[in-house]
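[SOLVED] Need 3D model of a four-part complex

Original post:
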Amino acid sequence: MLDERKKKVLQAIVEQYINTAEPVSSNAIICHNGLDCSSATIRNEMAELEKNGYLDKTHTSSGRIPSEKGYRYYVDELINDNDISKEEIKYISSKLETKVNEIEDLTKIAANTISEITHYTTVSIGPKTNNQIIEEIKFVLLGTRMMMAVILTDTGLVKETIIKFDEDITPKQVETINYMFNNKLKGQPIETIDRPLEEYLYDEMTYSVNVIKPIIEQIKKVLEEDEKIYLEGANKSFDLPEFNSLEVAKNFVSILDTKELMSDMLNSGFAEDINVYIGEENEKEELKDFSVVTFKHNVNGKNLGTIGIIGPKRMDYSKVISVMKYINKKLNENKDM
Amino acid sequence: MLDERKKKVLQAIVEQYINTAEPVSSNAIICHNGLDCSSATIRNEMAELEKNGYLDKTHTSSGRIPSEKGYRYYVDELINDNDISKEEIKYISSKLETKVNEIEDLTKIAANTISEITHYTTVSIGPKTNNQIIEEIKFVLLGTRMMMAVILTDTGLVKETIIKFDEDITPKQVETINYMFNNKLKGQPIETIDRPLEEYLYDEMTYSVNVIKPIIEQIKKVLEEDEKIYLEGANKSFDLPEFNSLEVAKNFVSILDTKELMSDMLNSGFAEDINVYIGEENEKEELKDFSVVTFKHNVNGKNLGTIGIIGPKRMDYSKVISVMKYINKKLNENKDM
DNA sequence: TTTAGCACTCTTTGTTATCGACTGCTAACT
DNA sequence: AGTTAGCAGTCGATAACAAAGAGTGCTAAA
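Solution:
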């Protein structure tokens, strides 16, 4: 455990370093509230904090910067998780009140708002289809050889896809397909569609495989499809001093470009929490120089979207966590939307 | 007009500079095919080419680099627009044979292929709705207060949107709406939807504005909606030496991030051509340090997508233009898809 | 336990010198 | 007249060195 003064010194260093991105000297923090002692005393405290792994030096005669352990302690013990102004609350509310027709858009708006307030890059993905219950499934004929399938789930998620055929389809066939699929699938979890083809064909000998097969294959394809990943404020990060190294900047762009990486990053977090990964805490090698904060927008255990911030380890954790907490709360209030 | 030797010198300099990104010295090109004279002669030619504006110097004692006028001459007169290998042709064909259900995906695949072969960043947008003829418009009830509208056009473009209502909708109402809209809109250009609301309401006094109004508003919204812009290989550009300057790299990311800029860039080109904009030839201030090559995928004067490459002025124009020409040809062959 | 003071360390910045690549020009050559 | 060899001159890149400045660690006194 750290004594009170050490906590204050650590907090002062972390917060100052977050602000300035420069190593913090003993002189620079003596004026920090609650710390009225000389720079020499601070130096002694800093030396000890460094010995215990909370601080790092860039070289022997430099000021100190927080180590990952230091950031972690700050996030766990010293953070202000209500660091959000009235104006920000107002702005968030107004943004989230936007009428949306698809849930996916709500996630995008939330991600955009977070990026605007925190000035960090956000990454988001839409709802996960698993766990969702099929409320309705509809087939619509478009022309003569094209069909659209629309699936509506209990959380209001809508998935649609186009299916093409090698033969003409009659309206009567569509009607039967509608009846048949709804009969089998209504009220079932969406994964049910993944069952073997034969099951669907048992009682419907009149329907050729030519019609049913492409339908099921296409629907499965759409449901399994790579989630679309939305970026907000990718270029905001470039204004930060840590991105002044070309290598880091390049690396960052390439990370954002790697969809699987972003997808894994967002999906790995725990459900009902704000997840903070600092540097080496990230599972993925590529992210070990960054910090990532994520949260999931859940309703009744069903995921309606996940939003993550990716930025330097020197991230304004107070602001980021405060804003995320508030937006998460707001999203849950608006369940009925 | 340039005499034969000057053409050869210019071509050698442009091609070598494209390869190496280093100013080209007189010594470096004497071995170039068809040029058997001394470096001193080349120097004289280079001096004259510079006087005429085809070449630039970075400083007094450096080699030469092509000026924008030099690139332009190269593109117009010296280019090999069939610079494409058998393997590349094979690869392109295999990629374009991918079965797609929506035309938009075809543009994406083409853009992806171009980026893979040229190693430059590509930008693409899907079909434009204007000029398209409505072939069919369908409304499907989802639940009780939600409806999906699907519009199919003559080129196979499918647009769909969700509409929410404040009151319950009956299947009978949907049937009438389907009839009513198809009656009015089938065979009409898609812009017809933009006509004033009253026209639709004339003969349908039984339908409350509460139902018709949100439908038309939402459809109009979707049709006017910002086109989605797809990027491929954004990070490929970062391996080029011109992006070693942090300022340029930052600039580039911010350009790619600006949707209106990208949209204008793609939309400005002429229809049936490969459009090449070199540096200052770009209308947009932000692009004046880059070169842009675009082409539109058109069928019967209807735009089904536009693809652009954005890269350094030192772009491999031969390769880029060859690949684009070939892909454009291929896309037009596959009209029926 | 705290603090003043000072030697020491290390980065940053600026200066100067040197090397090497290329051009431009002149004079000779075909 | 066109071409070429040769050489002086220019400029960028690199390295070596000096000086300044910021900050620490340690020691000894309060």
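Edit: Residues 37-41, 44, 58-62 of chain B lie near DNA strand D (CB under 10 Å from a C1').
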